[in-house]
Amino acid sequence: MKDDFFKNHVQSPLSEEQKKNFTGLNYFPENDALRFTLDLERYAQPEHVEMQTSKGDLRDYSRAGQIRFPVNGQEVTLQVYESEDNPGEYFLPFVDATAPQETYGAGRYLEPERVGLDKLLVDFNVAYNPYCVYDYARWSCPIPPAENRLRVRIEAGEKNF
Q1: Running DSSP on this structure, what letter comes out for residue 103?
Q2: CA atoms within 13 Å, Cβ hemisphere of 89
Q3: Contact 150, 98 (CB under 8 A)
Q4: Residues 6+ apart with CB under 8 A from 21
Q5: What is the pLDDT along the chain (161 residues), one digit of tens a residue?
Q6: DSSP state of 147
């Protein structure tokens, strides 16, 4: 479905030249150990965050809270952001130890799904590359903040293009 969108749709992030040779996106094998229902440890006073983008402009978010989860026996923490333009929509940009050899060096994205009061479905199998991977000049992508850079490997989701 996503491959068809990338290859054929007018709003694809790929250039016409890239579409000619596109055979599909690369993914890690499905990994059930990296699909979680987690408590969002919500901050009493969400902090305003200006996230730098690949083109140097700033995007406004608020740091909604944090999540904790195990990866290969090690507990890790990530900050969850909420778009100031779209309250209630969560954004989880991250970089892990698979970057830059196997995944995009500047990081990948997830949109955790709200599944209850302060409960989020966080499925790293659907982690994806920002559009600037495909055309750096055409797209401006938020860069994951230092607080969301992990030393563990998240072997799930989209790999390098």
Answers
A1: S
A2: 8
A3: no
A4: none
A5: 798 999 988 898 998 889 999 999 999 999 999 999 999 999 999 999 999 999 999 999 999 999 999 999 999 999 999 988 888 899 999 999 999 999 999 999 999 999 998 999 999 999 999 999 988 888 899 999 999 999 999 999 999 98
A6: G
Which two structure tokens, joined as six digits, stand for 109?
A: 């994205």
Amino acid type, 117: L
- Cis peptide leading into residue 100 (ω within 30°): yes
Q: Dihedral of CA 8/9/11/12: which sign?
A: negative
CA atoms within 13 A on the CB side of 155: 7
At a CB cut-off of 8 Å and minimum separation 6, what does 64 contact? 40, 42, 43, 46, 80, 81, 82, 90
pTM of the model: 0.92
Return the amino acid letter for 119: K
Name, in order, each residue with C-beta under 8 angstroms of 3's C-beta and a sequence gap of 6 or more: 22, 24, 25
